Sequence to fold (113 residues):
Amino acid sequence: MTFSAPLSVTLDMMVPEIEPNLEDIQMMDSFSCPQCIIHLVNFLIFILIFSVFIVLSLIEIFIGIFYVTECSMNHYIPIYLIVAGFISILNLIFAIVGVKYSPTSLYHFSMFL
Fold:
């Protein structure tokens, strides 16, 4: 494989250096700031939704533990609440681990959601 262009042609082509001025730097910072705000809002929404689901699961567990011997309808209902609460918490943990360690090219959440 040979090249027809002489070596001097490739060496003579120099890229001029452009010094960034203050306006260019301010422009870049102003456009990157909305990305930070979007990431912050997404994180806050995630924390809010995660806390709601954790609180609901903990309420299930506490109601099941409190009424484990007092349920007059069916004695399996408090046991169901305890088991469902623990499974919900495990489900959330597996979903977060699945999102954290899933390949970014697939861009899916998790099979546990």
